[in-house]
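We append the chain.
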Amino acid sequence: MVRADDRADQPGDEPGDEAGTIRVELVYAAAPHDVDLSELRLARGATAADALQASGLVPRRKLDAASVDLGVWGEVCARERPLRDGDRVEVYRPLRVDPKEARRQRAPSGVKSARGRR
């Protein structure tokens, strides 16, 4: 797991110490055991897009910022969504293969599913 702490673990940075700031996490899973977690302190009113930029994830992982979707606590959200203290921003990577197509490729050829039989 890659951990990029951005101003979050400095002395005096306990919750509520600095008026006008919030703490958020930004997480990206490049693969099942390859997780990039950034703990950030941002200005109140910061958006999901601000968190993505502040994390440094895009250049570090060589991502196309326009092709990734963002979410907060498992729900896809707009980049302009304002964040609250304690939010977890998730960066979703684009699908490489349609899930239905992937199942078809894994299934042995010539075998009908149980649903297809009556």
Remarks:
- Helices lie at 48-55, 57-61, 99-106.
